[in-house]
Amino acid sequence: MRLVKIDGEELKEVARMQPFTLSNLPLRFGSFLEVDGLTLSSYKSFTVEGWWYPTLLGTDTVVIAGQISRSKATAGLFVTKEGKAAAIVSTTGAFSLSHAAIAQNPLTLDKWHHIAMTFDGKSLILYVDAKKVSTQQINGPPARTGLPFRIGARSEAPGDMTGIIDGVIDSWAVWPRALSESEVTARMKRGLQEKEPAPAAKDVELYLGFDDPYGTIKDTSSQKRTLRVYNHGHPRVNGVLRDSVGFRLHHDQLVDAQWPSAAKISIPKNTPSGIYGVQVLVGPDFQIKSPSSGEIIIVIIRPKEPTKGTKIAIVAPVNTWIAYNAWPGSYPPDRPIEGITSRPRKPGDTIRHGGNNSAYDVMGDGSSIAHFHGWKRPNRRTWFTNVDKHGYNIRSTMTVYLAQWLDQQGLPYDAYTDWDLHQGNIPNDGSYKVVINHGHSEYWSREMVQQTHTFAEKGGSYVTLGGNLLTWSVALQGDVMETRKWLATLWRGEPDRHMAINQTLGGPWSIIDLCEQTSWFAMFGTVNHGVKPCSPAPTCFGKWTVKDNSHWLWQQGKLKNGRDFGESPSAGVYTVGHEMDSFLPSYQPPGLKSGTTPKVLAEGHRFGQPHTMQLMKLENIQSKSCLHFSTPPKEVPSNLTGPATPQTRSGHILYYQHRGGGHALTVGASASPWALKSDPVLSALVKKTLDCFAYQKNCAPTEGPEVPAGCGCEQPSQQGSSGMLLLVLCFVFLYRKRISQLQ
């Protein structure tokens, strides 16, 4: 491998490592729990009972709770390939259905079931919803097999996505005696009435209520056993009751690939901050066939501290790259993935291909959306050369296009990521004058919002080149990002709407603003308004047309109103597309300077297929109360905000003054960085904006309520007589201005 700097159109090698050999590594799918030190063979009698909300049933033998493998068993609850609940106590250590008590009817999908097995040393009884559904006479105690006690998986897991349940579990207990039928009924009734129906700690060998802080699951029995969570799971989702908390498991969940480090490449000391790439070179010659050949994984090298003289920081929208990463499945999930076991939701249904771990569409159970997305897995969204024939890709490629243009213009910058913004690694002490967000910057944590707000309140300026901005809230911890897209799912209560990581309200920022009486959604002046991208992209994308050509950011009236622009490097293809944001008067920027109004400098139009590009009626959200969005739906909403009206204009370029003393320019289209190098109008606008916002040069020659103060004298440091000439000219300008004021 080699580390390269993406410098203009070339790849400049920065470092190279010694050759190494890679071998295939296994994929370890599926989330489940394992309890240390618990074996049912230690008890002459026992009960295992708890709640399960199945979202996939049948075509595979899966374990609910106990010590069971494909061929061995001590005891436990499982589900047959027909979707029927079953219980087993094996005296020989072999797993055989002849040792099992099996229900006559399958369980019901998407419904809470209380499931229990009792064993008194002679008789095994299976209960479903407190009804005795099967019994089995057992001659002898459970065998000692050494199998681990697991909730949600066979002992072979994690492996090939088999043997693991899908759905939510809640309130699981192991009792050191066989409960009576009336006691099982009482346990179910408590679960339907109490948020936390915990038994007395001394009465049970294990109790899991799942109402624990993120990253922990506590056994509240007197044994206080240690639990391990495999493949993360989905903590703090809705439990049996509307306000209770459960834990969701999936046969195809994979947050961390758990692969060992195979190679390391050292970044040379004093390597400047910027956009780099890691390029794989294949033996035996390890030669570059062409300067840009091979897939390149984008790498952001941030500075230890702001680079001297650099006034611009760019923020790569890596949260979106993670959210769209479906690996090891595909998105959409209708494409088979080699080596992944695919199953229907229930026997006889259409087979669904599993493994989709993105924030989009559903996982292999056909109904659940993944909430947790990790960095430690391959991510094609970070590949620079993964573009179509037009050179277009909406993810990491937009970051490269922005960096290439900044290099071309001679504008120095430091590079950061969403996670740096979240962690406060981008100083807001005046070191930077401008922060550039760009591309598809869709997923924002509360910390990111607050850091950006503080930056502007202290005089910093935003330049934003993107669409679908600040749409979904996220929580970040370690290598994991959490999303809660509850508005688009069949959520059941408040835990489904709140983040596990920080327990704040998740979902769309438009709803968070409504419920918390904030206005962060409109921070950049435009809001996510174009909700259905046109097709086929990018040839259907539209053009911008100039409005308000007298505004000082335009070329002093040199452009006529109605002038079209926004051409991409691909002839005849424009860049107002994928997703477009627009200024709506009902969504005023929260930092708007008093006495000023936002100015629309251009708007997108002439879309290839205007009737496929629709605008979401955000005023429908504003007209509702928070309570409206706090009531669980009876079915998944088909349209979240009311009818969307087909539009022919969207994607505004907007300027506004911030009350902190800085300014904001938003170019409201996801694909806008793609046009910077090829479209002279957009390039000149953004260049003038950065010159003015960052260096106070090339501003308007006269001051006014919407023109930055100063004559444009502050410049990047220059050498020789040109710097002295600039100083003299500036002095003359100020002198003449002062004389005119006195007159």
Describe the secondary structure blueprint for this structure:
Elements: E1 2-7, E2 10-16, E3 32-35, E4 46-54, E5 62-68, E6 73-79, E7 85-89, E8 100-102, E9 113-119, E10 123-128, E11 131-137, E12 149-151, E13 167-175, H1 181-193, E14 206-208, E15 227-230, E16 234-238, E17 245-249, E18 274-279, E19 296-301, E20 312-316, H2 318-323, E21 343-344, E22 351-352, E23 372-374, H3 396-409, E24 414-417, H4 418-423, E25 434-439, E26 443-445, H5 446-457, E27 461-466, E28 472-477, E29 480-483, H6 494-497, H7 509-516, E30 527-528, E31 543-546, E32 564-565, E33 581-582, E34 599-605, E35 614-615, H8 619-622, E36 645-646, E37 650-657, E38 663-667, H9 680-695, H10 721-742
Parallel strand pairs: 20-24, 20-25, 25-27, 26-28, 27-38
Antiparallel strand pairs: 1-2, 1-18, 3-12, 3-15, 4-9, 4-13, 5-6, 5-12, 6-7, 7-8, 9-10, 10-11, 13-14, 13-17, 16-17, 18-19, 21-22, 23-29, 28-29, 30-33, 31-32, 31-34, 34-37, 35-36, 37-38
